[in-house]
Amino acid sequence: MESFDLxxxxxxxxxxxxxxxxxxxxxxxxxEEIGTALRNYLQTDQVTPSEAxxxxxxxxxxxxxxxxxxxxxxxxxxxxxxxxxxxxxxxxRHVVCAxxxxxxxxxxxxxxxxxxxxxxxxxxxxxxYKEQLRKPRDSTAASGAGLxxxxxxxKASTPLLISLRQLGDGxxxxxxxxxx
Amino acid sequence: xxxxxxxxxxxxxxxxxxxxxxxxxxxxxxxxENSFELFGKVIRWVEQFLSATTLPFRLELHLLYLNTSSxxxxxxxxxxxxxxxxxxxxxxxxxYYDQGNERVAQVAEEFKEDFSFAFSIIGKAR
Lengths: 180, 126
Hints:
The complex is a heterodimer of chains A (180) and B (126).
Chain A: H1 6-15, E1 18-26, H2 28-44, H3 49-73, E2 80-88, E3 94-103, H4 104-118, H5 122-133, H6 137-143, H7 147-155, E4 161-166, E5 171-179
Antiparallel strand pairs in A: 1-2, 2-3, 3-5, 4-5
Helix pairs in contact in A: 2-3, 3-7, 5-7
Chain B: E1 4-6, E2 14-18, E3 23-30, H1 35-52, E4 57-66, H2 68-86, E5 91-98, H3 102-112, E6 118-124
Parallel strand pairs in B: 3-4, 4-5, 5-6
Antiparallel strand pairs in B: 1-2, 2-3
Helix pairs in contact in B: 1-2
C-alpha cells in the first residue's frame, strides 16, 4: 500500500497558508462543524467581525450550493462530495475555494454565470442581487446557485475565479474561488 | 391562537412569538440548508396573527449571520408586514446589532430600503 507523505502535505498546506482543507462527502452537520472551526480561526487571527462574517458566509453559500446541487441531481448517499480549501491570502485577505463534480452542461452554465457576474461592479451586483431576491422561489430553486452565487460575488474583493476540468464521462469538476 | 416558540440551534435562531403581545422575536445565526422548513411555520403564524387580530405587530430581530435562503424567507415575512401596513395596520421592525459588526447593520439597511413601514436599526455598544 502506498504510504502517505504527511510531511509533504503539511509543507504544501503551510506554503499556501491553508487554514482548512477538506475532501469527501460533506454533510449538513459537517458544514456546521467546519464552519465553527473557521470562525474560531478567524477570531484567533483577529479578523474584524464583519470580515469574518463575509468569509464564513462565502464558505456557507459555496458548500450549501454543492449540497443543494447534489440533492437536486439525486446523487447518492444524501451527501455531496466536495473539496473545500480556505486559506490566508496576502494583505490579511482570505481565499475560499470549493469544488465538486457536476454534469458538464451545468458546469458550463455556471461558468457563464460567473463570467457574467465578473463584468459587474458593486452597484450592478447589488441590483442583480435584489432582482434575484424578488424572483419567484421555484425558478431560483431549479437553477440553483442563484442568489448565493451573486452574494458570493458581492462579498468577494476581486472577481470570482472558476475553472472546469472535464472528466470524460459527461461530467466535469468545477472549481470556484473567491478572495474576500 | 397560540404562541410560537422554536428553540435555536447552531444554524437556526431562537424564535418566539406572542399572540397577546403581538411581538415576534428572533435571536442568533440563521443558515439552515432549507430555511422554509423553519420559517414556513413562522410565516403561517404571522399570516394568522395579521388576519385574525387587529393588534399592532412588532418584529424584534437580533439576527447575526443570515444565509441567502434565510434572507429570502425573511423577505417573505417583511412582505406580509408591508401589505398589512398598506391596509392600515400598525406594524414595525426593530433590528438590533452589535456596533462592532457593521455588516449586520448593512444587511438590515438593504432590507429597510424595500419597505415603507417603521423600520429601526439600532446599534448596541458591546
